[in-house]
Design a protein that fits this description.
There is one protein chain. The protein is an alpha/beta fold. It has a single domain, classed as Alkaline Phosphatase, subunit A. About 30% of the residues lie in helices and about 15% in strands. The chain contains 14 helices and 14 strands. It has an eight-stranded mixed sheet with strand order 6-5-7-1-8-11-4-12, sandwiched between helices. β2 and β3 form a beta hairpin. α6 runs parallel beside α13, α8 packs antiparallel against α9 and α11 packs parallel to α12. The longest helix has 25 residues. The radius of gyration is 23 Å and the shape is globular. The N and C termini lie far apart (about 60 Å). About 55% of the residues are buried.
Length: about 475
């Protein structure tokens, strides 16, 4: 049992190290100066890299693919009819009967964009549609989870069930960090997620690889300033003292990854006090840049700030940044159950301009070639109507897109059937997507393993089509 005097000392002195930040930050950095082996030191990839960093834009709640990236003229032709029996066979979801529900056409006009002529909903996505020649749109994603939490967990970890490490955690485990003064894996959301922290959890990997949450608003990291009267030298001395006690404690509990992560978090918090204020300070950005992201505009300010901060973090060597949009329950993409037009219109308006601004800004700074930008959701929406005005969850077919990081844009990979019901050509599941992202970062998903429960575990488990990355590049 911990000595109560020591526990009290840790509690009182913790305020000087950004302790509030630590509670969300058991992730990262640096067993550096205090530990012989630094688990976040840069590591050699398996093969030449296409991308150094990832910005993963996750639309939390399920985006209707047939109303955005995978238009189906057949839906408008047969709107109000039931599906042919052969198409409905074997399909089910939580709220509608595929054999009885009516086909619903899209209420928006979807037209070709760019030299590639890829059809996109330019009414909902006017800014991103202009950049379609930079995107590889994957229309053949599929999964087998109907509800949000298991589906989100499936996309992030390869399993519907808790306990497995997230894609971001595997990335940092495999490659380490390029910046020892900032977290290697940063997460930003606009509220509490339906899946909790599972999409950025380290699972059975050491806790040091967990994602670090940055808050919404103008101050993403709280308590970066030292308390009045506390000097840097005082903090450093106190950290060294606590670190020595923690190492003695750890020596008796070998393999306690939570304690290792706590030591690393104290060190990271100390370094962040010197480096993070500059990294998260958007005031130095030009007005033109802020306008590009939609900052200070009512609908786009919040997500625009996240996207701009993501660019600043990439510039500073942060390895994996995951942005979630739609995590405020009752005010998200999932409102499409009852109001497809209202929900999709609102959420696209919040994210379209910031995302296009991010792509343009990365390209103008020469960062897009080395930054992989991924857009995705946990599933799509039924081509059939739910009630009068909505669409239900649909994991059988949905869309992702990729840009930057060596990806060849202006093309479509895979397809769904004429109704957008099932993925068909070049079917892509979560393991294919995750293995591809690792591949573009220079990691072979078959070789990136961690020994746990008697065998070498990997992100893609026994799955993953290794050639998918090649299809994105060719």
């Amino acid at each position: 049992m911990m000595d109560p005097r020591r526990r009290d000392l840790l509690f009182r002195l913790g305020a000087g190290f950004g302790s509030a930040a630590l509670s969300t930050m058991l992730p990262e950095h640096l067993l550096a100066a205090t530990t012989a082996n630094n688990p976040l030191a840069p590591k050699r990839p398996h093969f030449p890299v296409k991308a150094k960093s990832v910005i993963y834009l996750f639309m939390h709640g399920g985006v209707s693919h047939v109303d955005t990236w995978d238009p189906k003229p057949e839906l408008n032709k047969r709107s109000g009819q039931t599906l042919p029996e052969s198409f409905a066979k074997g399909l089910k979801t939580s709220r509608i009967d595929f054999s009885k529900a009516l086909i619903r056409g899209t209420p928006w006009k979807i037209t070709p964009y760019g030299q590639s002529g890829i059809p996109v909903n330019g009414e909902l996505l006017p800014h991103t549609a202009q950049l379609v020649d930079k995107l590889a749109v994957v229309r053949s994603c599929y999964g087998d989870a109907f509800d949000h939490a298991p589906a989100i967990n499936l996309r992030a970890t390869g399993s519907q069930f808790p306990g497995r490490p997230s894609l971001g955690s595997w990335t940092v485990y495999g490659l380490g960090s390029e910046n020892q003064n900032l977290p290697a894996f940063v997460v930003m959301s606009d509220g509490a997620m339906k899946s909790g922290n599972l999409p950025y959890n380290a699972g059975y990997l050491p806790t040091v690889y967990q994602g670090t949450v940055f808050r919404k608003g103008a101050s993403p990291v709280l308590h970066l300033d030292s308390p009045a009267g506390v000097t840097t030298e005082t903090q450093r001395g106190t950290l060294d003292f606590i670190g020595e006690m923690d190492r003695q404690h750890l020596a008796m509990r070998e393999g306690d990854s939570t304690l290792e992560a706590r030591i690393a978090a104290y060190e990271l918090a100390f370094r962040m006090q010197a480096n993070a204020p500059e990294a998260v300070d958007l005031s130095k950005e030009s007005e033109a840049t802020k306008k590009l992201y939609g900052i200070d505009e009512p609908f786009t300010d919040d997500f625009g700030r996240k996207c701009l901060l993501a660019r600043r973090l990439v510039e500073r060597g942060v390895r994996f940044i995951q942005l979630f949009s739609g995590t405020n329950l009752g005010d998200d993409w999932d409102d499409a159950h009852n109001d497809l037009v209202g929900a999709l219109g609102k959420m696209c308006k919040r994210t379209d301009k910031p995302i296009a601004g991010l792509l343009r800004d990365l390209e103008s700074r020469g960062l897009l070639d080395e930054t992989l930008v991924v857009w995705g959701s946990e599933f799509g929406r039924t081509p059939l109507a739910e009630g009068k005005n909505g669409r239900d969850h649909h994991p059988y077919a949905f869309s992702n897109w990729f840009a930057g990081g060596g990806v060849k844009g202006g093309r479509v990979i895979g397809s769904s059937d004429d109704f957008g019901l099932r993925a068909q050509d070049d079917k892509v599941d979560c393991h294919d997507v995750n293995g591809t992202i690792l591949g573009l970062l220079g990691m072979d998903h078959l070789k990136l393993t961690y020994f746990y429960q008697g065998r070498d575990q990997r992100l893609t488990d026994v799955h993953g089509e290794h050639e998918f990355a090649a299809r994105l590049l060719s």
